Amino acid sequence: MSVNHELDEDGEEEKKTKTMPLEGVKVIDLSRAMAGPFCTMMLADLGAQVIKVEPPAGDETRAWGPPFMGKESTYFLSVNRNKKSIVIDLRKEKGVEIVKNLTKKSQVLVENYRPGTTEKLGISYERLRKINPSLIYCSISGFGQSGPSREKPGYDIIALATSGMMSITGEPGRPPVKMGVPVSDICAGMYGAYAITTSLYRQEKDQNTNSTKVPQGTYIDVSMFEGQISWLTHQASAYFATGVNPEPTGSSHPSIAPYQAFRASDGKYFIIAVGNDELWKKFCDSLGISQLKDDERFVSNSSRVKNKLELERELSKVFSSDSSENWISKISIAGVPCSPINRLDEVFTDPQVISRKMVLECEHPTAGKIKQLGIPYHFSDYEFSIRSPPPILGEHTGEILSDLGYSDSDISELRSGQVVS
Prior knowledge:
This protein is α/β, with parallel strands linked by helices and 421 residues long.
């Protein structure tokens, strides 16, 4: 079955005017740093109205730099688009009251405080569900809300180390390394968004079954630690089967060979991925190494994995005789997966990246024109976009309070009392 994605101008315009998937869903975002904001950005990109509640000093990532654009750190700008910002001092009773008023009109709340903090602030799930029984409340933390490690701080590198993920990442015999982005934060944020949208779907399904029933709220407990445990996948399965701890293999694969980076004569590395025996034959033919194709050490994937070091030595000799560009050309013509290892300047000029609209631009009130990563899913009936840039601190405080029914004099009083700013 094929889908024709080509649309005329009228079709494109119709896509833009359709209702967004999460339009009408209001989200209170009490999170900061990466995990929570990534979660709420996913919801905002899908059309939810996300109200980012910040302390007087703001989300700490506003100061995580350089680099900065204007007064904003690029770190903050990366995960806070399509949101509105209100500054509330939750140490003050009237500040907590504002969150409770927001709760009455919201479907979702996301927070990533250390476990127990929201109870001390008076905005735990048990307290807020009394105000809104339909509330979907998602807590994202380092190790979860229960268990002996619940109090441990949630940092990406800690989750990577404790989960075992770092033990299988990096080059053999070299010091442990983390990934180039905080994957445990991003993973937890994605699981949070997935659980929230699932809960919203369940509420809608229940409403369709019984329209008089009050939608059921729920508490969602997501942790960076468990996210990385779940990502161990085939490595965990191999350990369960053998009892042997897997070791880091660099760019190579523990169960497929050759599947790794090789260095060419120009000093550049490139990737090959020979995923089955048929590709192995094509690969050998493209390089003119028939003597390796039928070598009993390498004739099947299982034999290649057993003799991986010998195979690597043989192929390294071959690849040292020509440039990476020429090898990639020959291997690609044969239909074998391969790629240069692109740096970001090459990534963002890649025709595929441009074609898929994975770089977008928007105008920021203080940073000027900024580039943002695109939205990595494409619906046939809706074209997603950046509807608003990442907010400046407290940019929408007055607007949000007015929507809640606060009068101008009420807002002035809250400002003068430094409850909001």
